[in-house]
Amino acid sequence: MATTSSSKTVPDVEKKSFLDITTLIRSIQRAEGNTDCFQKEIVDCDQLDCKWRSFCLEGHSVLKKDEA
After folding, report:
1. Residue 56's closest CA among 66, 43, 65, 68?
2. CA torsion, points 10, 8, 24, 31, in degrees to nearest 10?
3. Which of 5, 23, 48, 68 is most buried, with most CB under 10 Å away?
4. Domains of the chain: which residue ranges?
5. Against a cut of 0.90, is the pTM above it?
6. Alpha-carbon span 44 to 11, nearest angstrom
7. 52, 25 in Cβ contact below 8 A?
């Protein structure tokens, strides 16, 4: 059953190959000295200069109101 032990490592390798974008962006926000609030469902966001704001609030009415 050597294939069983090798097949156990394949899912671990596959999991590690995917990037958690939310964690990455929050890490960048902290490094920039900002609140790490990306996609935390904060619809009354006042971070107008945030580079991630439009992506974060995509589909929320707050973004549509600001664009008007």
Report:
1. 43
2. -120
3. 23
4. 2-67
5. no
6. 39
7. yes
